[in-house]
């Protein structure tokens, strides 16, 4: 994609590397788990009973984690037909409005993500319809388990910390759901950064116009040579 | 009234250049907070469940990944060589071969832009070299590329199936005849134009070249067999005494699993057989993969015997990581939109909008023909603003209940919607394939629009045929899977 | 302010996963909404969201605890995460027929189970019946050994997984909407379901036949959140519960007929139904009953005993 982003400095290079590796790893794992299950069923008449659920969890992780990366490198899709028709000052104003709307969107999501996740992890959700106005006394849902995913390690600690010492048979839900507050927090950070970038530069936007921009750039370069 | 405001807000935000996903999500959240008690927590739940709760949509990342490996791994150029060997000697042969190659690549890939990029990159340049105009080349590929979503597998069909709860397997089968039909119609049009305008024809390269190029492309084309045979079953032989030798062996996997198998298979072909990426690939002196044709300085491909450890290292090779990452990126981009379109769908359902619209339409005495024309118009207009899969998520739940009431087959409706999406991709001002083709061909958008026009007319005729002859869509799924069960 | 409801009315959203007019649960939900909207007009307004259009069975309980939906009726296995006792309904051959299931649910043990999730924030309001489960497969199933090595689609409940393993079959989790296609193409060989679902989803079309095993029960529990119930005026709650219990009694009484009609409809449509002789049935029971001991701690011996006592009294 027309990546307007190049990491500057060693720290952001490392973070960039981690983000891209995570995205590849999550999709790679999804594929391998699903493929393994097909082989197990077709060849060995067997299955990983938790394979399907785990794959769906990884799918949610991939996307919710990756959205923030998308804001960072400006890869989310938008309509730039109108933008192309107006002058620079109007473009800048439109970009600012766009960034503002996006910021409100991720902040509302942030409240929602916390409110949703908190009870599963034994924390309190916030009160308030639009804005967090305080903390509610949420009913603890630490006991709520996934359907089939086993707990790979730390079972005793999880039970003591999140389930009042009662036994977990399956992975508690707050673990897969953790991607919500975490991923949305990253979105908030990346959208703020993108907004600052637009204000500093006096131009730019949060969108690209289609999904194949970088592939097309490569192809165009190729066509130029001949 | 409130709903009209909701849609006006979405369109307004889109025009301002707000990301599509945010325009949908922001408007839905505002609507929900203003007009209902529904909590922000439920928005977060919907966002998570857009992925974790939709088993069907899981096919999308896998098909994208398979397509990623196919594009990086040199399948496209082998398919093109085979196409040229088959039809290149006809008048206008290279253009016809381009369409044929698009059809074959469409059968491996779930998206239209991917098809345009993979085939267009090579074919447009080749057509110009032998004397076709750039415009003609771009027009051909731009149109033929839309077959990516009509010929199975198809991301748009997956989304439609998920939104309406029809079977993906049925939708895929339903796309086969229309896909071939549309391709053949384009080829005939090109042939007629070529005869009239006396366009160049290639040399007949002989059966030897057909066989050689087929053998070379076969590893890629085998994927079609794996996907279709894996889902629907295939003829098989058994070697037990007393039993009949040939029999029909059942399917091995669901369409979603087929996508994952396709991705793994594409990785194996690209890394170990074609060796156009990964540890065995040929490299330019600077370490990069050769683009198009390797330069003389590039290293040769290695064989697995020379580097047996590649069996392990291929999984972690930077080419593999990069290809999977590219697939992940596109998945994220599309799913961000789809997830937010699902938020909008949730709001509309919560307010029981689809039923209200259906009741209104039906009490106004809407007939099937008016209804289908209306669907066409909505999609053609919506297609100007929206990414196709996001649009389907929003429109399908609105029109589906009406279609069922009017006795329209859900599979037929799905194919009509897909063909509309195809047309939306090549109509101005906004059309995904127009953008991609203009980029790939290095032409201004408006020239591509003009170039695509004659073929656009073909697709319109095709849309009319598909709309009024349901059997084109429903024949194969009914034959293989029995009549569609309609659940209200 | 939701469309269709008047200002000031208590809006009750009922989200379920079946159709509205043929499935026992859908019929009951539609009837409940009709009666509430007619008899409690001005006070309460019920909206039904069928076909998983709003939530699926898994999400709906979370949404209920969040206060985003008021009524739901998931299948009983969905409550196993709340209280392991609910596993008793999934255990194979625990109940001889629907009368036994009904009597067990009406007993003190059954009624106590409806209250057992209060500490998790849910209150059971009443059980809704679907029927007894049957096995179908792409080969004739007469003896339990016929199921050996076959792949069966199951709901992802530990008990149902164990039940399939006891048969020597391979349990396969799969989303409900994919089952027909998977049976048709042979991705899986069989499944277990009630007559209503076997007919409603046309599973019999793509199977060799259905064996009338009556080996398990598929029932639903209508639940509401404790917090929501507490928020209602006592009078409103009583009015609502009165209607609810009447609808429950009426539809549960009629479910036997729905079940029989669907069974007949399978036959009429050319489906094959295999009945088991007493000896054959005993073989199935012997093969699958070891699953009971596996889940004894979760279910409790006293509850199993209570169920068996009811079986005995129903048969006599
Ligand atoms: Na395709
Ligand atoms: Na368009």
In the sheet with the most strands of chain C, the strands line up as: 6-5-7-4-8-9
Shape of chain C: globular
Largest interface, and how many residues on either side? A-B, 80 and 82 residues
Structure classification of chain B = mainly alpha
| Rounded Rg of chain C | 20 Å
* Strand ordering within the main sheet of chain B: 1-2
Sequence-ordered SSE layout with sheet pairings:
The complex is a heterotrimer of chains A (226), B (488) and C (316).
Chain A: H1 9-44, H2 51-72, H3 88-120, H4 155-162, H5 174-177, H6 179-201, H7 213-225
Helix pairs in contact in A: 1-2, 2-6, 3-6
Chain B: H1 2-16, H2 20-35, H3 40-52, H4 59-72, H5 75-87, H6 93-106, H7 112-129, H8 134-144, H9 155-164, H10 168-197, H11 206-232, E1 234-237, E2 246-249, H12 255-273, H13 310-316, H14 318-350, H15 353-363, H16 368-382, H17 388-405, H18 410-425, H19 432-441, H20 445-468, H21 471-481
Antiparallel strand pairs in B: 1-2
Chain C: E1 10-15, H1 24-39, E2 44-49, H2 57-66, E3 71-72, H3 98-106, H4 108-115, E4 122-137, E5 151-154, H5 158-166, E6 170-173, H6 176-185, E7 190-194, H7 195-200, E8 209-225, H8 226-231, H9 234-268, E9 273-275, H10 278-288, H11 290-294, H12 296-299, H13 301-315
Parallel strand pairs in C: 1-2, 1-3, 5-6, 5-7, 8-9
Antiparallel strand pairs in C: 4-7, 4-8
Helix pairs in contact in C: 1-9, 3-13
The structure holds sodium ion (NA) (2 copies).
One sodium ion (NA) binds at residues 383-384, 424, 427, 430-431 of chain B.
Structure description:
Chain B: Keywords: Cell inner membrane, Cell membrane, Membrane, Transmembrane, Transmembrane helix, Transport. Chain B: GO terms for molecular function: transmembrane transporter activity. Chain B: Its main location: membrane. Chain B: Residues 7-472 form the TRAP C4-dicarboxylate transport system permease DctM subunit domain. Chain B: It is a multi-pass membrane protein. The complex is a heterotrimer of chains A (226), B (488) and C (316). With 226 residues, chain A is mostly helical. Chain A has seven helices and no strands. Chain A has one domain (10-203). Chain A is globular. With 488 residues, chain B is mostly helical. Chain B has a domain at 59-322. Chain B has 21 helices and two strands. In chain B, strands 1-2 form a two-stranded antiparallel sheet. The mean pLDDT of chain B is 87. Chain C is built from 13 helices and nine strands. In chain C, the strands form two sheets. Chain C has a six-stranded mixed β-sheet, with helices on both faces. Chain C has a three-stranded parallel β-sheet with strand order 2-1-3, with helices on both faces. In chain C, strand 1, helix 1 and strand 2 (44-49) form a beta-alpha-beta unit. Chain C starts with 9 loop residues before the first strand and ends with a helix. The mean pLDDT of chain C is 91. At the A-B interface, helix 1, helix 2, helix 3, helix 6 and helix 7 of A face helix 1, helix 2, helix 3, helix 4 and helix 7 of B. The structure holds sodium ion (NA) (2 copies). The site of one sodium ion has 8 residues of chain B, from loops. Residues 383-384, 424, 427, 430-431 of chain B line the site of one sodium ion.
